[in-house]
Structures are given as structure tokens and as C-alpha cells.
Amino acid sequence: MKIIFKKILLGLCVLLISGCATTHHKKGIPKNEFSLKELCDQYKIAYSLDPVSQNILLTRGASSASALIGSDIVLLDNQKIILSAPLKIKRGVVIVPPDFKTRVLDALVAKIEVSKKDYTIHKIKTIVVDPGHGGKDPGAIGPSGLHEKVVVLDIAQKLSTLLKRQGFKVVMTRDSDVFIPLKDRTVIACRAKADLFVSVHANAHDKRSVNGVEVYSLKALDNLELNESERLDNHDILFKEMSMKRNDEDLKRIVSDMLYMYKQGESAALATETAQTTAGYLDARNLGAKTSHFFVLRNTLVPAILVEVGYLTNPKEESLLRTKSYREKIAQAIAKSIIEYAKDK
Fold it and tell me: Is 161 within a domain?
């Protein structure tokens, strides 16, 4: 988790630049305030505003800044800057105080000047592997009685072994036939300071003819889901690990939004890669990358995917999933996807 946080601060949210240029004021904007959009246009900075979270992201180069409407705090890389006045919206225009240019833009210019060399920010180090179900919860059951919990535990153990051989630290949410509540699985990921979460499942359908591999990433959350109690609990764990100042709610909101935006893009990319690689390696039907509100995707804070390795209700796939050789191939395909993904981090 610490690695992902630094990655976001150093490389994901990228931003701003540069010296003071003459700024033309729109009608109705006081001379001691500035249109953020006009500043971004002048400095060639990418600008985005999330209408739900009210989080502003400005990007340029290899540094980053993020701020909230109504807050006087800007997060510039890992530095907290307190402005003379909060950001606000007037007639649909985002307005910033005058010291935004000197304390944020000028500071960013200096950072860019001294950090032009290309470098790798951080690599994926810790991966949580989550075999679905377990214990009293068998999961899907095939026509011949094969339990999902047995299949996915074996695949997850094999995947863990393969990833460890590549130098990753792997944490299993369960390593035996025990029942682990969903909430506990996400807490395990948070306490492990995970950089990636991979949940392994087998599918089921009323029609036995349905078959194939599909991989899920997180579907966009609404305000209610973003404030789900389990998710907020995991944020509290993260903030304690970061030794963040207590009651600094603006900063917590900024970091939470940055984590969420990073997770969305990275998870979707990994899901697509994993679906293609796994289906191709198994010569199985590729049902593609999809999105869902599954609990373990919703309440983990890092890039996360849920892999459905096949349909236990399909007699042919159940027969394949019963064999250790096929499970080994699944583990190899998922591992290959993760390794390729991690190379670019």
C-alpha cells in the first residue's frame, strides 16, 4: 500500500508547471483571483475535474498535484501546501487564489527542472492472492460434485509459488479450507500494504453450455459505495500506516480520491491483459474483461481483479478443472499476466 501511495503521488496524478505569465481575467473574476482553466491553457497543463468527488487533477511531466473544491489544501507530490484561500467555483469556472501560481506552479517548475531524467518510480512488490470461498462456503458446485473452494485454493497456491519464484512477496487470504469473511479479506490486503489484489474464482450458470474465462475489475462507485463502512475502515488503516495527521479530513479525501482514480485505470488494464492471456493459454473462450461491484473489488484500495477461471457448471470445463495439470496452466497464465503488468510499473 505504501508503494502504491508513493506511486500515485510521484507518477499517477501528474501536473502543472511554470512561471508567472500574464493572465487575462474573465469578466466577473476579481483581479486577485485566477481562472484555473486559463492557467492550465497557458502552461499547457492537462486539467480534469471529477464532478462527483469535486477533486481536481492537473497533469504534466512526472510530478502531480491534486486539490478539492472548497479546500485550501493542495497535494503536490508528497508535500502538503496550504493556500491563502480555498478553491471555488464561480459561474462554472474554477477559481484559485493568487498564491496558487507562486506556491504550486513555480514550485512545480523547480521540481521538473531537477528531475528530467527518466526513471522507474516503483515496482509491484507485494501481491495478495485471494482464493474465493472456503470452509462452510463451497462456492459453485459442478455436476459431478466438484467444489469451487477446492479448485481455486489449488490454483491460488500454484499462482503464489510462481509469483514468489519471480521475487514477489505473496500474501494469501487463506491457505487451507477455512472460511474467511469478505471484510477480513480486504483488511488482510490493507494490512499487508499490498500493491495488487488478485481474487480467484470459478463460475456457474443455469445453462450448462455456458463456458469461458472472464476477469472483473471495479465498476465505478457512487457516493454511497465510496463511503461504505468497510471501505472507510480500510482507509483508516492506511492513514495510520502513513502516520497522517489526525483529523486532516481534506488531505484524507484527496488521498482517497487519488487512490480510487489510480485503482480504476490500473485494474481495468490488468483485467484485459489477464482475460486475453489466460483464455489464449488455455485455448478457452475469452468472455473478456468486465466490471462489477463485487465486495473484494469495492473495498480493496489498490488495483484489484477477480478472475473467473471457467464454469464448473459446464461438464467439459468441470472435467478440466478437476485436473492438476489444467489448474497449473491457469496459474501460469495469470502469473504471466501479472509479471507483464508489473514490468511497466
Answer: yes
Range of the domain at 67: 2-114
C-alpha distances (whole Å) from 32 to each of 18, 23, 37, 65 are 19, 11, 16, 22
pLDDT given at position 122: 45
* E strand map for the chain: 34-35, 46-49, 55-60, 63-68, 73-76, 79-82, 88-90, 93-96, 126-131, 169-172, 196-203, 213-218, 286-292, 304-311
Is residue 130 located within the same domain as residue 110?
A: no
Q: How far apart are CA 229 and CA 264, in angstroms?
A: 20
User: Computed from CA positions of residues 308, 225, 270, 184, in that sequence, does the dihedral angle turn out positive or negative?
Assistant: negative
- State the amino acid at position 90 in one-letter form: K
* pLDDT tens digits, 71-119: 998 887 667 888 899 999 888 889 989 888 878 777 665 554 433 333 2
pTM over 0.70: no
Instruction: Give the tens place of pLDDT for each residue, 13-64.
Output: 433 333 333 344 455 556 678 888 888 777 777 778 887 778 888 776 666 7
Closest CA to 141 of 290, 310, 15, 318: 318
Do 108 and 194 have their domain in common?
A: no
**Those residues with Cβ within 8 angstroms of residue 217's Cβ, 6 or more apart along the chain or in another chain:** 264, 267, 268, 270, 271, 289, 290, 291, 292, 297, 304, 305, 306
